[in-house]
Amino acid sequence: MSLYDIIVAIIVGAISGWLAGFIMNSKGSLLRNIILGILGGFVGSFLFGLLHISIDVAIGPINVGTIIVSAIGACIVLFIVNKLFK
Length: 86
Hints:
The chain is mostly helical and 86 residues long. It contains 3 helices and 2 strands. It has helices spanning 3-23, 30-50, 64-84, and strands at residues 58-59, 62-63.
C-alpha cells in the first residue's frame, strides 16, 4: 500500500464518515468520523460483496460508488456503536 493509497483511504473515510454522521444525526469529531468511515468501507465492501452488488459511479477521477458504499457501511457501524454504548 503506497502513501497515495493511504491518503485516498483517509479522504474517502473522512467524507463517508461525515456523511454517516450527518445521516445518522450523530455528533462526533473528525477523527471519529475518519475511523468510522474507514471501518465502514470494510463493512460496506464486505456486505456489498456478499450480496454481489456493485456501484460504479465515477465523476471524473472520483469514484462516488466507493464513497456511497463506505457511507452505508459507516452508518451500519455507527448504528452498532450507538447501540453498544447507550
